[in-house]
Amino acid sequence: MPESERRTEIMEAVERLLARGGVGAVTMRAVATEAGVSLRLVQYYGRTKDDLLSSTLDRLADRSIARWRARTAHQESGRSALDEVRAFLDEALPTDEESTGFHRVGVSLEALAITHPDTAGRAYRRHLDALADHLADTLRSGTSLDAAPLDATPLDAASARLLALEVMGLAHGLGTLLMAGRLDRQEAGAVTSDYLQRLRPRLSP
Amino acid sequence: MPESERRTEIMEAVERLLARGGVGAVTMRAVATEAGVSLRLVQYYGRTKDDLLSSTLDRLADRSIARWRARTAHQESGRSALDEVRAFLDEALPTDEESTGFHRVGVSLEALAITHPDTAGRAYRRHLDALADHLADTLRSGTSLDAAPLDATPLDAASARLLALEVMGLAHGLGTLLMAGRLDRQEAGAVTSDYLQRLRPRLSP
DNA sequence: CAAATTTTGATACATCCGTATCAGGAAAGG
DNA sequence: CCTTTCCTGATACGGATGTATCAAAATTTG
């Protein structure tokens, strides 16, 4: 197996461990077992544990952005900015097993970003930056494609950025409440529905 | 020094370590050093590390609730629900050193809640529950005390609960963005200001 | 086939961790 | 004073972890 594939496999093992048991579950030996390779090989790639971890997180940030970008790319145009916000919230909230695991990884990353601002923090910031930029772009192109309603102001760049950050914040926070079991899927739907209703006069007629 | 005070001091040391370096920084020996006592004494109270940690987290949840409750109790009545939301957001966002540390502890708690759902998860849920209940109550009494505006519907219990959860979610998410440095104080103010403006027709004239 | 690359095995070492165990010292309250 | 409560010291054990090292095998590649 070529070197790059092995690297990927090992990083995927790290991600799985992160999703399952948080940072504490990531040890060199656990990674080896999870990836089905020898400890020696885990040392072979990613010389040190910090290297391995920060490489994995960088890759994670890249993939997360690419995933979201791909998800919105094949959509037909003509969706309003409100539709985009709804889609983002639907997509970002941890409702199934996969997105739950992804959110768990996100929490681990967030915690790591605090204790290791230079490595994990960088990856985290890159991730948030790209996500906010892309969401803001989506929001702007959404409104411009709209059949311009009389009372809907097209979003300027600054407003789009602020709204994107607000939506990201709400998604993250609601996700946390969902994960904690403080909110069930239905209530989350009701919250976002209320939120979107209030947002409507701003983004579409 | 009486037993209960010592317990408190040790738990405070645990909190400081959590705020500074996350879960990984909490070791029995580190707690001893931080509290200025011997390792032997840390073992004396809170027999095991899990006990010590979950006691600390329980105490933290209690204090967080009490703190917020006290903060809103001495306020004069007559504040609208919108004022309450504004106050909550102002209070909850990590803008100074103290609230930043508090948020750091919250992230640690969140991460712990995932890996230890029975101990840390319980404390986290208790914390979120009490906060949501109190905020919902505040929102309802806020509107009822308002000079009833024509178009402002008084909040029923279910709506207040949903709005409380939404506001908590937003606060948590924005807090994370602030901590990550993806948002500065000024932008956070702009976001909450926009958000409140959209909320206005719902809560006050 | 030969050579380069990729993978493993079997250990080893220093370090930190949680926990435990002895005995003994300090302080406080009756 | 003296007994009870509170606290420390020194030390140890078993386990897990990150990292390192040596040689050797398997696999791919030219």
UniProtKB/TrEMBL annotation, chains A, B:
Superkingdom as given in the UniProt entry: Bacteria
InterPro entries: BetI_C, Homeodomain-like_sf, HTH-type_TetR-like_transc_reg, HTH_TetR, Tet_transcr_reg_TetR-rel_C_sf
Pfam families, alphabetized: TetR_C_6, TetR_N
Record keywords, A-Z: DNA-binding, Repressor, Transcription, Transcription regulation
DNA-binding region: 27-46
Family matches, as SUPFAM superfamilies: Homeodomain-like, Tetracyclin repressor-like, C-terminal domain
Domain HTH tetR-type: 4-64
Protein's UniProt name: HTH tetR-type domain-containing protein
Higher taxonomy: Bacteria, Bacillati, Actinomycetota, Actinomycetes, Pseudonocardiales
